[in-house]
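Problem 12. The chain below contains 273 residues. Write out its predicted structure in token notation.
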Amino acid sequence: MATISEDKDPNPPNAGEMVEIRLIRHGQTIGYHADLGLTDLGRQQAAAKAAELAGTLRPGEPVRIVHAPLVRAAETAGEIARGLVAAGFGLAGTDPTVDRRFDNFRLWCGNRALDPTEAYAVYAEALEGDRSSRPPWFDEMDQFWKILAAGEDPITYWLTQPTQHWEPAALAVRRFWHGMVGSARDAVPGLRLLVATHSGCIRAVAAAAFGYDPGEPENTEDVRIVLPVGGERGRLTYRGRTVEVVAPTTAAPPWVSDVTSHHQAEEPTPARL
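Solution.
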């Protein structure tokens, strides 16, 4: 792990050869029990974020905006896009667009990979049903939701608790890096890529880089990553700290593969009695 520096990057790379990526948490949402949009405050937060970002841009600098598919991320991206256009900055013709590489972390629930918000309806149905018939993933979702309902931090649970049915934080980090490196590989120099997404994965990316959990991002707070066009080594900045990072883009280790089919392929033949 490279030395962490405080405040500004001491050796900023040539901006014309780099891509800057901002992983931006969505604005305040109406709630997490369904796929809901932003509150009035959440829209104000996203508009303020657009003004903040506009202050860092130069005329003619290329900007792209992508987002996770849920409504709260899409509305955050839309508000940021409107604010930048109003400030005189042009965007790609199709922006904002969905990029599934920046999805929230997911629960394997009823043979589907669902965001915690999407999984809530299935969880609520199981909660009302017969206790003896509750599915295997139920206890993990129940623990996560009880922590959230108590006003505490369910992301720490996800980051630190070995689970059977949640997408592991390490794999969510790899997924985000796949999206970031892929975007940098295809980008024009100087691109600003703005990603409206969710706090858990943003926090996991920062924790993997720093070697410790730096804490939950506030609504519309961001983690900034600067990568060379076509490269995999850059810098990550969060809350005034910068660290050198290398994207985990080597061949995936065997435990990333489909463990179910791997297990079935190597299942020993039962001994005859």
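Discussion. Confidence is low (pLDDT under 50) at residues 1-15, 260-273. Students who got a different answer should revisit the alignment rule from Section 12.3.
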